[in-house]
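Input.
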Amino acid sequence: MARVAVMGAGSWGTAFALVLADAGNEVTMWGRRTELCESISKQHENVDYLPGIALPRIIRATADPAEALAGAEVVVLAVPSQQLRANLNEWGSHIPAGAPMLSLMKGIELGTHLRMSEVIGELTGAGPERIAVVSGPNLAKEIALREPAASVVACEDLAVAERLQTLCHTGAFRPYTVTDVVGAELGGAVKNVIALAVGVAVGLGYGDNSKASVITRGLAETARLGGAMGADPMTFLGLAGLGDLVATCSSPLSRNRTFGEKLGTGMSVDEVAGATRQVAEGVKSCQSVSELARLHGVDMPITQHVAALIAGELKPDELVSGLISRDAKAETE
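Output.
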């Protein structure tokens, strides 16, 4: 099918590498730590992020980014969103000219308020026809276990989206195509912030009514921001919007939901961050999403309260009480 480089050896990058291998592609992964790359290549297991799950033997890994990218026909970017710029500055020059780049990242860059596709375009000089995004209800462990799941591949060039769709379509993973990159990326970034709020509610001992209320109003916030930024409203009713939001807010496998839950039980941000190897993207992105909303004149109270909580300006119970005590208004406002 294709020679694919997956740049990033965390849980989602590894799970997606498995999908690509199952679809018949030749996959080379890059990771920063040599010992982790050796475990992937020799033991066929990512012992740090997906222990106990066997990886296809066709997958190999290297700590040399130039080696991973050599001859790649497609490049998958799966590093933490706030580290993308530094990584591209380090090895972006090795990305083969003309190779499509597929982002698995879900975040808004701090300081610049750029979506990940915009950071990729800025640093590589690639046009939108070379930059695509995968987004949907795709919890890494379930994908790696080959449980049935669907997602979307978003690219402004439909032909490129369809080519990438073919490269990751397996018996367990069903990708759809869209051309709304803005909507797909916003859905993926904001849902992490909303999942933190849902986790806080769970940690405080609240039940399903509270969770469903935060999820639904969180979707409204996402759609408002998307509308202001030119996204297709239908995207937020699909896999990259509602689908991803429900999975991330509902599952104990969700890093952001789990992070918020621990905050709700009384742990500090530093305590929770120090207790896990996994990156909860919403912790970093909540501030940039909140600032992005202000720049576009969009009211996003859940996002703003989560940003205040992470900054130490609110306590978990104050987050909930602050939202409930807001002025009553029509649901569609």
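The first helix runs from residue 11 to 22.
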